[in-house]
Amino acid sequence: MNPITEKYTLAVGLPRAMTFAFVSDLHDCDNAPVLQAIEKSGADAVLVGGDFIHNDEIYRRGVEFLAQSAARRKTFCCIGNHERHYMGDLAALIAPTGAVLLDNQAVEYGGIVIGGLSSGYAVGHAQISKRKSPLWRLRPTPPPDLDFLNRFSALKGYKLLLCHHPEYWARYIKPLPVDLTLSGHAHGGQWRFFGRGVFAPGQGIFPRYTSGLYHGRLLVGRGLGNPHHRVPRINNRPMVAVIKLK
Q1: SS3 4
Q2: Domain map of the chain by residue range?
Q3: 115 CB contacts (<8 Å, ≥6 apart)?
Q4: What is the pLDDT along the chain (246 residues), one digit of tens a residue?
Q5: Most buried of 143, 150, 189, 190, CB within 10 angstroms?
Q6: Strand ranges (DSSP E) for 64-195?
């Protein structure tokens, strides 16, 4: 299923307007339609909000996406819970792609401070979750690195945070002076009825943050697919978000 493009414009007082394409939750999807949507957007840079890897065995197309994207424009990515499934050296895997991995790190780009808040799950999460019942998805998401988050929020300038888990926002991020947070993980609630998602890990039934802009400071993408997921998407088109900051 080809993604739709949703556009957002935020007047934030930057000296020069910047446009970003935000994608998340690729999960081994077909890269071509995603790259085409990004190309049409005219984005200055690409922001990848985690879960470009599916698990320790299925990750090649996600890595290829990073390489193909970085060959065209600056690309930044953060760590989601599925990156925690990868048992090798994630930094070494991503470095040859040319994409910038923000693992509880921040960089300056185009007058914007871009940070990546990593998933609180431990490395090897896949091996642990395989031994659990499906009810593990109802458990709270482990907390992130709060030391990094506090350091990031204290930086000067417009601060844009890649944070895979939207369930982190209300508890950890909203009270801090972080200007914009981009999240995924919820897959739009998987099934969408009357503009609401049905379920999201870390948020449970009828989750609050599944798609679009909330409070002018949190933007949640619906992700780009999961061909390995047993539950189909219903009324829930894959999404590329195009964000113009001016």
Answers
A1: strand
A2: 4-245
A3: 102, 105, 106, 148, 152, 159, 160, 161, 162
A4: 789 999 999 999 999 999 999 999 999 899 999 999 999 999 999 999 999 998 888 899 999 999 999 999 999 999 999 999 999 999 999 999 999 999 999 999 999 999 999 999 988 775 555 545 555 556 789 999 999 999 999 999 999 999 999 999 999 999 999 999 999 999 998 899 988 999 999 999 999 999 999 999 999 999 997 665 677 888 889 999 999 999
A5: 189
A6: 74-77, 100-101, 105-109, 112-117, 158-163, 180-183, 192-193
